[in-house]
Amino acid sequence: MKSSILFILAFALLFSQKVFSCSCVGQPDDIEIAVTEAFNKASSVVWAKAVSITPSSSKMEHPGQGEDFDAESETTHFTEIQSWKGDHGKQFYTNIVTMCCVCGRSFNEGEEYLLYLYKNKDENTYGTGICLRTKHVRYARDDIKILNQLVPNKSLQPTAKAPAE
């Protein structure tokens, strides 16, 4: 009986269509290396406050079928507190797909986040996801210390103090 069930499951997996799934590649164990790599890959790295969040939808291509469909997303208006990299401005927006299994990231109004961002295709908004180092600022103390070391020219930007634990 067990072998029949395993055979059916294996058969189903082999012949199933591609589906959306979120799978993050492991990050380095050394936090300095992880932060440096994330900093180098991001178009912007910023500590910001989520001012407002608007539910929206984004066009996505269905894997293997080439058809577009509407996916649940959120547009979040942020205000910069501290910037280490990027030309996002003091006010900027993210548009992130938040539907299941596509690695999107939701935010909460009034909360502060350390954001590792990339520019969306529309060039007017940014994106981020759960596989990047983006996190609530309360969990970003070590990242912020490293970012302050990576960007030594503080004359153009105030030094961010790491949040208390």
Describe the model:
- The structure is a single chain.
- The chain is built from three helices and six strands; from the N terminus they run ααββββββα.
- The protein has a domain at 26-58 and 69-150: Beta Barrel (OB fold (Dihydrolipoamide Acetyltransferase, E2P)).
- 21% of the residues lie in helices and 33% in strands.
- The protein has 165 residues and is of the alpha+beta class.
- 25% of the residues are buried.
- It starts with a helix and ends in a 15-residue tail after the last helix.
- Residues 2-20 and 154-159 have low confidence and may be disordered.
- It has helices at 2-15, 31-41, 141-150, and strands at 44-61, 68-85, 91-97, 112-119, 126-127, 135-136.
- α2 crosses α3 (141-150).
- Strands 1, 2, 3, 4, 5 and 6 form a six-stranded antiparallel sheet that branches.
Short description:
The protein is an alpha+beta fold and 165 residues long. It has helices at 2-15, 31-41, 141-150; strands at residues 44-61, 68-85, 91-97, 112-119, 126-127, 135-136.
| Total of helices | 3
Helix content, binned percent: 10-25%
The overall strand count is 6
Highest-level CATH class of the domain at 26-58 and 69-150: Mainly Beta
Q: From the structure provided, what is the oligomeric state, counting identical versus distinct chains?
A: single chain
Rg of Cα set: 19 Å
What amount of the residues lies in strands? 25-35%
**Strand and helix order:** HHEEEEEEH
Distance between the termini: 53 Å
CA-based shape: globular
- Per the CATH scheme, the topology name of the domain at 26-58 and 69-150 is OB fold (Dihydrolipoamide Acetyltransferase, E2P)
CATH architecture of the domain at 26-58 and 69-150: Beta Barrel
Mean pLDDT: 76
The major β-sheet equals: 6 strands, antiparallel
**Poorly predicted spans:** 2-20, 154-159
